[in-house]
Amino acid sequence: MIQGFEKYTFELTDFEKAKVLPIVVKGLSNKIGKENAVSNKYICDTLNKSGMFGKYKLQQPRIRKIVNHIRITGMILHLCSTSKGYFVAKTINELKDYLDGLGQRIDSQSAVHDSLVFQMKHFADEGWK
User: Fold this and answer.
1) What is the mean pLDDT of residues 53-70?
2) Cα 110 to chain center, whole Å?
C-alpha cells in the first residue's frame, strides 16, 4: 500500500484474486506486440459492461494494481506498457524500450524524492513544522 493512495493501492482482495485476476491474465496474455496494446480504460469498460462481476465495478487504479501483481509474480512474462496500453513484448527491443522508459521514470521520481529530502533537511527551520 502506498501512503496517500491507500484507497487505490491496498492489497488485492480475495475476490480480485479469484475472479478478476484470472480474466485479466487470460486477456493480456494474447496481446503480443505493442501494436496489440490494450488500455486500462478499455479493460475496465469491457469487463464492467460484460456484467460478469455483478455489482462489483472495476476501476482503473485496481487494474494497475492487478497488472503490478501480474508483473511481480511473473504470471505473464515480459508484460510491458506504453501510453497506448499493456502488451506482451514480442521482441527483445520492445522489452528493452519498456525497461529504458521504466528506468527513466524511476530516475525522475528518485530525483524529486532526493530534492524534497534535501529541502526538508535544510529549510525546515522556516517556521513550519
Assistant:
1) 95
2) 18
**C-alpha radius of gyration, the chain, whole number:** 18
Contact of 9 with 2, CB cutoff 8 Å: yes
Question: Does 124 have pLDDT greater than 70?
Answer: no
Distance CA 111, CA 104 (A): 11
State the Cα–Cα distance between residues 60 and 49, nearest whole angstrom: 14
Decide: 78 and 89 in contact? Cβ < 8 Å.
yes
- Output the pTM of the full model: 0.87
List the Cα angle 13/62/115 in 5-degree steps: 115
Residue 38, beta-bridge partner list: 86
Mean pLDDT for the chain? 92
